[in-house]
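I hope you will forgive my troubling you with a question about protein structure. The full record is reproduced below for your convenience:

——
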Amino acid sequence: MIRIAAIQTDPRFGDAARNLAEAAGLIRSAPADLYVLPELFATGYLFRDRDEVAELAEEFPTGVTCRFLADLSAERRAVIAGGFPERTRDGGLYNSGALFDRGRPVACYRKIHLFDNEWDWFDAGDLSPRVHPSSSGRLGPLICFDWIYPETARCLALAGAQILVHMVNLVMPYCQDAMVTRCLENRLFAVTANRIGGDRRGGREITFTGQSQITAPDGQRLARASADRAEVIVAEVDVAEADNKQINPRNDLLRGRRPGLYGQLTE
């Protein structure tokens, strides 16, 4: 059994010190083995352009946000995941998520499916989703709009994921309900960590939906946050439940697949 927590924050754009302090306070308020923070939780979301992303981006695992996550992960003796704008040495800019386990860097996942204006700000990740063993189970990171493509979660399920680590800044009202289906169709857990409030910059405005949630393999919402408060939600789970893909004595969710008939998915 482990305790998993979704950290729902209310960041202010560009105020990293304030945003990191908010995240630290929320994490320290609730004992857990796995903490998941939102997408771009330290910077805010609504960038003016790619140049502004470059100014706020950092390298993995040595940047300010990554060091913060590493230190807090070591302090809490837990896994912590959070989103940040990543800059690579060859000039790439990615909407990324960092995972640390008791201070040790585990993974840096680059968002595959960019949303709306993100195409002007970021490069799309070009690596297949991967599962990462940790002290809190086998984790499959996703970032926000990845949720709308069922192939992403299915790839992680096939690779043995037990928990989808889902860092988000949601603006559409559908994701929280869709994650019930993602968990049912793959029989795994999901931690969807969203933010609240909004960004208003350069004549543009965007509002986020909150309602972070933790979902079980049977589709049950184990915990759900409010739409308008920064807070922590926690659920205690047996991660081994995600290893049981047996629907009934004759139907195994994954062994029952017929990939030879699915060629249209990759044509």
Remarks:
- Residues 50 and 120 are 6 Å apart (CA to CA).
- The chain has a mean pLDDT of 97.
- The domain at 2-265 is CATH 3.60.110.10 (Nitrilase/N-carbamoyl-D-aminoacid amidohydrolase).
- The first helix runs from residue 16 to 28.
